[in-house]
Specification:
Layout (H helix, E strand, L loop, with lengths): L3 H5 L2 H22 L1 H8 L5 H8 L3 H13 L3 E6 L2 E6 L1 H6 L9 H15 L2 H6 L3 H22 L8 E5 L5 H9 L4 E6 L1 H11 L7 E5 L12 E5 L7 H14 L5 E5 L4 E3 L1
Parallel strand pairs: 3-4, 3-6, 4-5, 6-7
Antiparallel strand pairs: 1-2, 7-8
The structure holds S-adenosylmethionine.
Amino acid sequence: MGSTEDLDHPQTILQYNSGFLVSKVMFTACELGVFDLLLESGEPLSSDAIAARLGTSTTGMERLLDACVGLKLLAVELTQGGALYRNTEVSNIYLTKSSPKSQYHIMMYYSNTVYLCWHYLADAVRSGEEMLKFMAGQNSVWSICGRDVLAAFDLSSFTQIYDLGGGGGALARECVSLYPNSTVTIYDLPKVVQVAKEQFVPPEEHRITFHEGDFFNDPIPEAELYILSKILHDWDDEKCRQLLAKVHKACKPGRCELLKSRETLTYR
Ligand SMILES: C[S@@+](CC[C@H](N)C(=O)[O-])C[C@H]1O[C@@H](n2cnc3c(N)ncnc32)[C@H](O)[C@@H]1O
């Protein structure tokens, strides 16, 4: 990024400028069932056949298919009868609904929900009130899967837990409910801790405490278990290394970190 080539021709800036087009082409082909149809058909199909089977316009479909070819999500074979399209291997594995490794459902969530929310990013940045909605949003997922995440490993031997960047505290609440002998300290930025206290964690919940701090610039106190849930994806590799090194230093031998990113759960 910022290379001398970029100064002559801003390749990076142009890629960022149109990045959303790439996502939307992939989402649309998934949503319309292009990859599923090509998997089921077992043979390459023309754009007319695909359009007819999926009930779309022929020109629109042809353009979408060609865009997918450009993105290497589809391959095209030029025959005397016209162009025939088929899935690439990667599309068969990740973009079809029936594949065990299918990413279809998360993509539909991104396309129909996350994509729309990001339209209002500038408003969200302008307005501090959005923080409350963001925290509630972050919390809501834990009412569905918090217990499963926390039960994936037996954490009952840990009584003193720090949830770094613990936000609104929904995971902390699940944790003390599942492991009644534990206490969880939500470590987060002062303004977030204030909102968590006022809005999300009932004062009678004495097993949850708070620590106002910046995990990059302030000390991280000693604890038996550190939870970093949906934290690392926010930072570049250097920042993640910095944070993990700090947690590692605070962690005494035999103590642990539970890392939950969007896709993975790690216990070490
Ligand atoms: C994506 S949210 C995840 C919230 C929660 N862990 C969860 O799983 O729902 C990231 C959290 O990290 C907190 N955070 C960001 N930078 C931080 C910092 N430097 N020190 C402490 N917390 C921070 C944010 O305030 C926010 O609550």
